[in-house]
Design goal:
The complex is a heterodimer of chains A (339) and B (887). Chain A is mainly beta and 339 residues long. Chain A has 2 domains: 38-131 and 239-290, no CATH class; 136-237 and 295-332. Chain A has 2 helices and 21 strands. In chain A, strands 2, 3, 5, 6, 7, 8, 9, 10, 18 and 19 form a 10-stranded mixed sheet that branches. In chain A, strands 13, 14, 15, 17, 20 and 21 form a 6-stranded antiparallel sheet that branches. By secondary structure, chain B is mostly beta strands. Chain B is globular. Classes of the chains: A mainly beta (339), B mainly beta (887). The interface between A and B is large, with 90 and 93 residues.
């Protein structure tokens, strides 16, 4: 009886198995490589400068790794505000233009970025107002249980009291510090790791909770980070156009090719050619006020599972974004550690 | 895989045993309709001549009275009395002239002598009406022709098997005929309105098979409608099907002019229309989601369905509310006398249907159900991804047919279905339909057929996630309540007038996003929408001459979007956006927020041409007031239905079509060419990156545009014979143009671009061949151009984030789609009068194991250069076995 049931199971298995064999395979696609377009990547804030505006050309989609796109060099880059101030930026490295040390943005001002390329093309941004941003009220964290234990970690939330009389759009970013250890036969070497958020864009508009507190997840720390963690949360104010820009980028990163994917969207920035050419200017020139808050988190005991502590021994600096931890010199520690 | 090798011998054993059984039973004699005793038919004259010889007598009569009468009779008659009895059925009597001479004459009728005019004809008109039924099953026969020889005119029975025709009083021979049945003739001497019922017997099959269809033999050429296809359930059952499951909706994809976006998407596209532009009805109740489990299984149980009609060209005035097509599915309406059942067992799902005659000829009930056990199977797999997934469905039909009396019948139809689908990531989708309709069919006098119908339909859908911090629950639904009255008036010999009205009340319950207990999800409360849709229509099918038929109709529809609702208000004259948002305005219960209305003329003209051919023209204007919002590649089960209102206008279209039809080889081969052009206005489209789900400000994501669709469809179809099937080719384009108030609201610089379901080439073939009396083989082949897609063309960096720069919307195409399916069916054994009839079907879906692209997307894996990937829903050939039975 058992054997027959087994056989029936196996027959069904074989007949039903092909049904589940849907798949994804790489294919060759022929598509047009467009004329390279100018990309503007820049943000000025109300925090002390200097600020960097990066100008580059877009590359073909399947070209080499990112960050190697050709720079737009030798351009004249100017920021003007609505009360007549003019700031000329200077090119410090190819494609990278820096403001002067004492230029600082302020809330309420409206800024325009003007670019004149070496070839004489003139690009201008829409006036971008630097809107005020409320402070980050507090930060809290919550451990996330998942069916796959390797993907568990802590969700970090920002709590903000949203002003009711304004239309607020928010963007958050963060960076964090933790220590990791290397154990040798004779010694324990510990290093700081400074990590940034990459590939995560968190933006929200306030219409659904206007005037109330926002509790928004802004970061996720995987479980393998050390059980002590210092996080800095940066909260940016956005204009409506800036919000739309970042929102579209955020959707792009969610696209995984499933049958429920929306149509891919072209990201529209806020810059255009002065002579009215239809060709788009990519990227965004943003002006945001920033408020920050940091939190030193102690995840232990009991919530963070085991993690490998020993790595091959090499100097701290040879690891990405790492530097030496000197226990006897607190001034070298990241600001806010241990509070 | 050691286990696999172990069971191989077992599989071989099963196959050998099966073949042996086949051979054993193939020796039995075969008869198609085993329930009838074969009878001898003769013409009346032949019968009389025989009797003359046998009895040594002579009859006197006029040949033209008798030469069309066909009689069922025993082999010999022993005396005059028996002959007299038989003849009197046809209005004749025998007057003995002498011992051996007899004169045939018409029975005495009383009439007023001075009603004759000069030519000896009556002055006045009489109406002949009645039902044409099957002698064997007592079912009403739809589309049977009733022909009057002396006048060379006739009519066709309607959906209830009822006909009515008005002619001058006189003597006529009537002949009722339908495909697959023996014709019946009657001679009648008409002086007043008369009811004449016909009973047609099944034809005895001696070779091959004739598919019983409820269409006239030359329906293709003689019907005035363009673009109408009636698929009888037998044809659909003969096609190879995915996992052995006969799917009515997927069979439609094999017709020219009908396509879909791909496996995994529910819905279908007709003549360049989106999936929400098809009005899908089952016994007058609407179906908003036409598939189970993403288009893999049909929502219609093949054993309860009587027939399926797809209207894509001329659409009569009694239908409205969607732009592109009407799919009208009718379940069985019979007052049977025998208890029977049908069903099937498949690898993933099984079904059972019972036909129960409660009171013979008066009250019958049909009960059917289907259920899948794919969930149980998924659980058997060791793979954790599969184990944690879940997919199942059920559906059930109930039909009650009650004949109150000769003039009144009542039909109650109920349908219920549910689908559940869960991904291993803990996200579960569920949707379901619950429909109920009650229809009272009443005959006023002889010429006016009326139907009064009440419908309740509830379509619900939702998503939930149980994963801790992301836990949420969202349930939405659409409630549809309607009352309608439809009349068909057989007014005179040249007109059939249809008129009526309907009222529909919609409740769009958009649901709320409710977070789970430990969840950090922000709750969202969505506004519900309510609306009323009214319609009145009037149409006439007018026989202008022998070869000219005109169908002219007009429909007036009116739509109101009503409260209670809190409607978003934006600054006048500015594009809708968060910055022009001013607040909400509250409307109370029943208060009208916005209303729309329009006239919908419908015209069709048929010109009969010599040698079984015709030319048809049609023009339709259609309005659509409810819309399915979806900007995903395929319609998902949780896409949102929204009514027209302050910011969403009704869409409307004008469709022009011309067709040429010709039948060959005595109507066994149908061919047609149809050309159409459609202009669509106020089509909804979406801004780049529109977020449609759970969005209280959804109008900010929408833009209105126009569309145009045109195409040419070729079809060659063989309906009778050992080999049946068709081959169709369509070349069509469907494009959109969106020009808004600003750059954000304009797509592709305002130029025409292809719609998501634009598939220029569509070649389909389906065929069924009866190899022997028990074995049949069928195959489907589909080739379709790849659908449009938007690809990234450039790449750049903003704030350390790599951005893909996409080209224009739908500028590219994914790879072409083609697929071959085959199936073999072993019919039941050939004994007569058996209680249980079973058959096995073995089918292979996607025989070439082609990985047809569903979508193409771009991803950078492991920080390497991004590449294009193709996602296929079906990645290989899929065999299946099904056992079907009836008793």
């Amino acid at each position: 009886m058992c054997m027959i049931k087994n056989i029936i199971h196996k027959v069904i298995f074989i007949l039903v198995l092909p049904l589940l064999y849907s798949c994804e395979v790489p294919i060759d696609v022929e598509y047009e490589v467009p004329v390279p377009q100018i990309v503007v990547d820049g943000l000025i804030t109300d925090q002390p400068g200097p600020y960097e505006i990066i100008l580059s050309y877009s590359g073909a989609y399947t070209s080499g790794s990112d960050g190697n796109n050709p720079a737009v060099s030798g351009a004249e880059v100017v920021i003007t505000d609505d009360v007549g101030n003019i700031e000329h930026l200077r090119e410090t490295r190819p494609g990278r233009y820096l403001t002067s040390d004492f230029f600082q943005g302020s809330v309420g001002r409206t800024y325009i970025l003007s670019i004149t390329t070496q070839e004489g093309s003139r690009i201008e941004s829409n006036p971008e107002e630097m809107l005020p941003v409320p402070p980050v009220d507090s930060i809290y964290y919550h451990f996330q249980y998942l069916s796959d234990p390797n993907k568990q970690g802590h969700n970090i939330f920002a709590v903000v009291n949203d002003p009711v009389e304004e239309k607020n759009f928010y963007r958050w970013s963060w960076d964090g510090y933790y220590r990791f250890f290397m154990v040798t036969d004779i010694d324990v070497i510990s290093c700081w790791r400074h990590e940034y958020d990459l590939n995560r864009i968190t933006v929200v508009e306030d219409r659904d909770f206007n005037g109330n507190n926002i509790y928004h997840p802004v970061a996720f720390i995987p479980h393998f980070a050390n059980d002590e963690y210092l996080i800095h949360i940066y909260q940016y104010s956005l204009t409506e156009n800036a919000f739309k820009f970042w929102n579209t980028l955020s959707d792009q990163s969610d696209n995984v090719g499933s049958i429920f994917d929306p149509q891919p969207a072209r990201v529209k920035g806020n810059m255009m050619y002065v002579d009215g050419t239809q060709e788009p200017v990519l990227g965004y020139f943003g002006a945001s006020a920033v408020s920050t808050r940091h939190l030193f988190m102690n995840f232990k005991p009991g919530v963070s599972p085991e993690y490998p502590r020993s790595y091959p021994v090499q100097p701290c600096e040879s690891y990405r974004d790492s530097f030496v931890y000197n226990p006897s010199d607190p001034s070298s520690w990241p600001k806010g550690w241990g509070e | 895989m050691k286990d696999f090798l172990e069971i191989q011998p077992t599989i071989l054993k099963i196959l050998k045993y099966g073949l042996f059984i086949c051979l054993l039973f193939s020796g039995f004699a075969y008869s198609q309709n085993s329930s009838t005793i074969p009878s001898i038919e003769e013409s009346m004259i032949h019968y009389l001549q025989k009797a003359e010889k046998d009895l040594d007598i002579k009859f006197y009569y006029r040949a033209e009275w008798l030469d069309t009468i066909v009689v069922k009779a025993p082999e010999r008659f022993n005396n005059i009395k028996e002959i007299e009895k038989s003849l009197s059925k046809y209005g004749l009597e025998i007057i003995p002239y002498s011992e051996w001479q007899y004169i045939l004459t018409w029975k005495e009728v009383s009439f007023v002598y001075n009603e004759y005019n000069e030519e000896g004809q009556f002055n006045r008109d009489v109406t002949v009406s009645g039902y044409v039924k099957s002698l064997n099953s007592n079912e009403d026969i739809i589309g049977s022709t009733v022909y009057i020889h002396q006048l060379d005119t006739g009519t066709v029975t309607d959906v209830n098997g009822y006909y009515s025709i008005t002619i001058p009083a006189g003597i006529y021979s009537f002949e009722a005929q339908a495909v697959g049945l023996m014709a019946q003739s009657m001679q009648m001497y008409l002086t007043k309105d008369t009811t004449l019922q016909f009973l047609l017997a099944d034809k005895v099959i001696t070779l091959g098979e004739i598919i019983i269809s409820d269409e006239a033999v030359d329906q293709n050429v003689s019907d005035v409608s363009i673009g109408k296809t009636k698929l009888d359930i037998m044809t659909i059952k003969g096609m190879p099907a995915f996992m052995g499951e006969v799917d009515i909706v997927r069979s439609l994809l094999l017709l020219p002019g009908v396509s879909s976006v791909g496996e995994g998407s529910s819905g279908f596209n007709v003549r360049g229309g989106s999936v929400d532009q098809n009005l899908v009805l089952i016994d007058e109740t609407p179906i908003f989601n036409t598939s189970h489990l993403f288009g893999i299984f049909s929502v219609f149980n093949q054993d309860v369905v009587q027939d399926v009609t797809l209207l894509k060209g001329s659409i009569p005035a009694r239908y409205g509310g969607r732009l592109s097509s009407v799919l009208d599915v009718k379940t069985k309406e019979q007052f049977g006398s025998k208890f029977s059942g049908k069903g099937g067992l498949g690898l993933l799902a099984s079904r059972l249907t019972l036909d129960i005659p409660v009171i013979k000829e008066k009250l019958s009930i049909t009960l059917g159900g289907r259920i899948s056990y794919s969930d149980y199977l998924l659980n058997l797999f060791p793979d954790p991804v599969l184990k944690n997934s879940s997919a199942w469905f059920y559906d059930a039909n109930l039909k009650i047919n009650y004949r109150v009396n000769n003039k009144n019948t009542v039909h109650i139809s109920a349908y219920s279905s549910k689908d559940k689908f869960k991904l291993p990531s803990d996200t579960a989708f569920a949707w379901g339909t619950n429909n109920l309709s009650l229809r009272w069919n009443h005959l006023f006098g002889k010429n006016l057929v009326s139907n009064f119908t009440g419908v309740y339909s509830s379509y619900n859908y939702g998503v939930s996630n149980s994963e801790d911090i992301y836990a949420f629950n969202w349930d939405a639904g659409l409630i549809y309540k309607s009352l309608k009255a439809d009349f068909a008036w057989f007014a005179g010999k040249q007109h059939k007038v249809d008129f009526g009205g309907s009222f529909i009340r919609y409740d769009f319950l958009q649901g709320d996003l409710k977070p789970g207990d430990a969840s950090s999800v922000v709750p969202v409360f969505l506004q519900d929408d309510y609306s009323n849709e009214y319609a009145l229509y009037l149409g006439d099918e007018w026989l202008l001459g022998e070869k000219l038929t005109l169908m002219a109709g007009v429909r007036y529809s009116y739509f109101q979007n009503i409260g209670p609702n809190d409607v978003n208000i934006y600054t006048e004259g500015e594009p809708l956006s968060p910055s022009s948002f001013e607040g909400v305005q509250s409307y109370s219960n029943g208060e009208v927020i916005e209303s729309y209305g329009g006239w919908e003329p419908r015209l069709a003209l048929r010109i009969g041409l010599p040698r079984s051919s015709s030319l048809k023209f049609s023009f339709n204007r259609m309005y659509q007031y409810i819309h399915l919002l979806s900007n995903t590649m395929a319609v998902t089960p949780v896409d949102v239905w929204k009514p027209s209102g302050l910011y969403i206008k009704p869409e409307y279209s004008n469709q022009y079509s011309v067709g040429y039809y010709k039948n060959f080889l005595e109507n066994t081969l149908e061919t047609s060419v149809e050309v159409y052009y459609k202009d669509i206005f106020d089509l909804l489209d979406y801004k780049d990156g529109a977020r449609l789900v759970l969005n209280n400000y959804i109008e900010e994501e929408l833009i209105l545009g126009d569309g145009r669709a045109y195409g040419i469809e070729f079809l060659v179809r063989k309906k009778i014979g050992r080999f049946t099937g068709w081959i169709g080719y369509t070349y069509s384009r469907t494009e959109r143009q969106v020009i808004g108030l600003n750059e954000e609201e304009t797509i592709n610089f305002g130029e025409y671009f292809p719609a998501n379901y634009d598939r220029p080439h569509d070649l389909t073939f389906t065929g069924n061949y009866k190899i022997t009396r028990r074995w049949s083989f069928s195959a489907n082949y589909i080739f379709m151009s790849g659908r449009p897609a938007t690809y990234p063309e450039s790449k750049y960096v903003v704030d350390n984030f790599t951005v893909a720069g996409y080209g224009e919307r739908n500028k590219y195409r994914i790879p072409d789609y083609h697929r071959l399916d085959i199936s073999f069916t072993l019919g039941g054994n050939l004994k007569k009068n058996k209680k249980w009839d079973g058959s096995w079907t073995f089918s292979v879906y996607n025989l070439f194991a082609r990985q047809n692209a569903y979508s193409v997307y771009f991803k950078a894996r492991n920080n390497a250069v991004p590449k294009a990937y193709k996602l296929s829903v079906i990645g290989t050939a899929i065999p299946s076995i099904t056992y079907n039975f009836k008793f």
